[in-house]
Amino acid sequence: MYRILDTGAEQAFDDLTSLAAAICGTPMAAISFVDERRQWFKSRIGLPATETPRDFSFCAHAVLGDETLIVEDATLDVRFADNPLVLSDPSIRFYAGAPLGMANGEALGALCVIDTKPRQMSEQQRHALEVLRRAVVSQLELRRALADLQDASRLLSICAWCRAVKDEDGGWRPLHDYVNETVSVTHGMCPECTGKVQQSWAE
User: Fold this and answer.
1) How far is CA 10 from the centre of its chain?
2) Whole-prediction pTM
3) Vertex 84, ends 15 and 91: CA angle to 5°?
4) Helix (H, G, I), strand (E, B), or coil: what is residue 69?
5) Dist CA 179 CA 163 (whole Å)
6) By C-alpha distance, which of 157, 127, 138 is closest to 100?
7) Are 98 and 128 in contact (CB under 8 A)?
8) Which of 24, 27, 29 is nearest to 122 (CA)?
9) Beta-ladder partners of 113
10) How confident is the model at residue 136 (pLDDT cuts 50, 70, 90)?
11) Which of 70, 106, 161, 178 to pair with 128, CA 20 to 30 A apart?
């Protein structure tokens, strides 16, 4: 729906990641997205990997709640003590992840800050991370709106005779098929068609 996974770096997201690391004073920060099998980083600082298995993901835990998940010392937390990301590189000790809750109620991932040593987070830092989280969500919603607008604008390339739609590759497809693939739709009947159907049933 948001078409964000495996996309390239974007300055708007990188700026927010940099701000999160600077405000929280951590050597690592990331904007991550979690699917059924992996955690993928749209933006990252201090993390060499572009993705990790979901089973190792701290953010997979963060998306389960509405509040920022704070782990002050991962070695003392039963959820993470034997995690490979704790036992080896990048040797995570501190983690704070603010879930990216979208307008549809789904949490796609988290804006997180990470350190290699145990630490506490001040109330001001936590608040700032929440503010930045909302900025990330706004960027995602804006990105989605622009993509939907681009999809809709392509409907201008419609055959005047058969109403087929010209796609990005120059091919022509039935309008119904194109809309089903590019726009979330629900099926129903307008009042005029409903009346016609009811009349045909009566006859």
Assistant:
1) 14
2) 0.74
3) 55
4) strand
5) 12
6) 138
7) no
8) 24
9) 29, 96
10) very high
11) 106
